[in-house]
Amino acid sequence: MAVRNMDEFKKVFEELSDDMTPERITQLAEDVADTINDMRSQIDTANSKAQEVETEWRRKYTSRFFEGAPEGSCEFQQEDEKDRAEEIGFDDLFT
Question: Which of the residues 64, 72, 82, 89 has an alpha carbon 20 to 30 A from that of 95?
Answer without folding.
Answer: 82
